[in-house]
Design a protein that fits this description.
The complex is a heterodimer. Chain A contains 10 helices and 10 strands. Chain A is of the alpha/beta class. In chain A, helix 4 crosses helix 5. By secondary structure, chain B is of the alpha/beta class. In chain B, helix 6 links the parallel strand 7 and strand 8. A 5-stranded parallel beta sheet of chain B has the order 6-7-8-3-9, sandwiched between helices. The N and C termini of chain B lie far apart (38 Å). Helix content of chain B is 34%, strand content 27%. The chains are: A alpha/beta, B alpha/beta. Chains A and B meet through helix 7, helix 9 and helix 10 of A and strand 1 and helix 2 of B.
């Protein structure tokens, strides 16, 4: 019987958004957004500046309170919980361990004056690691994974290039083996060649670690390379959603057609 | 043999909003079946909708009406009305697609481009690379190129990399969009052999080929797409 299949962990949603809205006075920054994200799934949120992408990401990651609607997340014990109902300890667990948040500007996601090793190790210490040697080993193995020369482990990210900083930020986020990573324009502001390297790295890490991710980007090429599904936003609303290649190759909405047709061929 | 693909009255229309909402009907009433081990070749002039039909089966183009039945893990699933995650699962396990052009992923070495479909379904990297190397060798891609990304390769080389990537999995359904278009005679024969091997292994194939000789070699049946022309 196909329909009485036992539900496995993978068949259960990791994050559910229902009717999420945010308004500032009369301005609706984000209106009635609902979707379901499954483990291992990468969702891209695309749209132009001011379309509500970042507002949505901040609500999803419990950094901004919604005006209406709610977000539920499946905690590691398998129970789906409303983010508003979490206690302080549970929220901290999400922020420090089970979630990653990669910011467009690595200076905001890193401690610029601390060493690279300390940047990666800090998240481990926050979850109770105390053995210096083990923390350093974990940090150095993560630097290798994101293709940073381990000889630079004691240097502060201030001395790193933009691409290296962004890779360090990714290592810092992934070291605690999160199940969900939020990314806000992760390749914004980088040279094209640096972008390609970062995208390839992220693609591999996401598939190797089975990570779920929600990626905000205005770059459709990033969405195509990284995501399985895409949501197109305009004026605070989701106007089109579907499989990434479906939406990009066969866009239905006028605005999505405009976005897709506005890409300059290389 | 069991039916692997069953299209019934499938249709597709593009609405071009940037051109004042012009409606462009592509195909209508697309109805045919493909059994396991069978190769169906779609025929018809350029613009008749052959590639669109392949893209509808792959779930790349959304279907505006009708049914696209695919046998997936023992049961028929209607791709025309499936959830995105079901379509992804069908692509992982059931449908392979060789497009006309390789969509190169920056920086990824050729051998990994080819091995990737196996790796994502759980084959170890070493085994996947070994099978990728075997296919690349058969398709006459010299070993010294395997560690380079294919973006700088010639058109024919890129197409062969694309074919290797499409043929490496054991998908029971395979869609081929002009797989031999820019190949020389020797490589065309390799591709015909690969297609024959897939048919022997029970794979259901839908192909578009313009070369009459190749069509005679591989086709068990020809479906004339002009029968599905959608009058405006």
């Amino acid at each position: 019987m196909a329909d009485v299949q036992r539900e496995t962990q993978c068949d259960q949603p990791l994050l559910v958004a229902e009717g999420l809205s945010k308004s500032y006075g009369r301005l609706a920054a984000c209106r009635d957004v609902s979707f379901t994200l499954y483990p291992g799934e990468v969702l891209a949120i695309v749209g132009e500046s001011g379309s509500g992408k970042t507002t949505l990401l901040q609500m999803l990651s419990a950094q901004l309170a919604s005006s209406a609607g709610h977000v539920s997340y499946r905690m590691r014990d398998g129970v789906l919980r409303d983010l508003n109902s979490l206690g302080e300890a549970e929220r901290r667990f999400l922020f420090r361990t089970d979630w990653g948040y990669v910011r467009q500007d690595p200076a905001q996601g890193l401690r610029m004056a601390f060493s690279a090793g300390a940047n990666v190790g800090e998240r481990l210490m926050a979850v109770g690691w105390s053995h210096y040697g083990r923390i350093r080993d974990a940090a150095s193995s993560w630097l290798e994974r994101v293709e940073i020369d381990t000889a630079r482990i004691d240097d502060a990210p201030r001395t790193y290039s933009g691409g290296m900083r962004q890779r360090l930020q990714i290592a810092r986020n992934l070291v605690t083996e999160p199940r969900l990573v939020f990314m806000d324009e992760p390749t914004g502001g980088l040279d094209v060649s640096v972008q390609a390297r970062l995208l390839d790295l992220m693609r591999n890490l996401v598939s190797e670690l089975g990570l779920a991710a929600i990626v905000v980007t205005h770059d459709l090429a990033v969405a195509r390379l990284l995501s399985h599904r895409v949501m197109v936003m305009k004026g605070g609303e989701v106007i089109e959603t579907g499989l990434t290649d479906q939406v990009l190759d066969d866009p239905h909405e006028p605005y999505t057609q405009l976005l897709v047709s506005s890409i300059l061929p290389p | 043999m069991s039916v692997m693909i069953e299209m019934t009255g499938a249709e597709k229309t593009f609405t071009m909003h940037l051109q004042g909402g012009v409606r462009l009907p592509v195909v209508r009433g697309v109805t045919f079946q493909v059994k396991a081990g069978e190769c169906v070749v779609l025929s018809g002039p350029s613009g008749a909708g052959k590639s669109s039909i392949l893209k509808m089966i792959f779930g790349n183009y959304r279907c505006d009406g009708g049914r696209i039945g695919i046998r997936h893990e023992g049961a028929m699933i209607d791709l025309a009305n499936a959830e995105p995650r079901d379509i992804l699962s069908v692509r992982r396990a059931t449908i392979g697609y060789v497009s006309q052009f390789l969509r190169a992923i920056p920086r990824v070495p050729t051998i990994d481009v080819v091995a990737e479909p196996l790796i994502v379904t759980g084959t170890s990297r070493a085994d996947a690379r070994q099978r990728a190397g075997h296919l690349l060798r058969r398709l006459n891609i010299p070993e010294r190129l395997w560690t380079l990304p294919p973006s700088t390769f010639s058109g024919g080389e890129q197409q062969r990399v694309n074919i290797a990537r499409g043929f490496i999995s054991d998908h029971p359904v395979l869609l081929l969009d002009e797989p031999t278009a820019s190949l020389d005679a020797a490589n065309r024969e390799v591709v015909v052999d690969l297609i024959d091997e897939k048919k022997c292994a029970g794979v259901a194939i839908v192909a578009i080929v313009h070369d009459d000789e190749i069509r005679r070699w591989i086709a068990d049946r020809v479906v004339d797409v002009t029968a599905f022309a959608a009058a405006a």
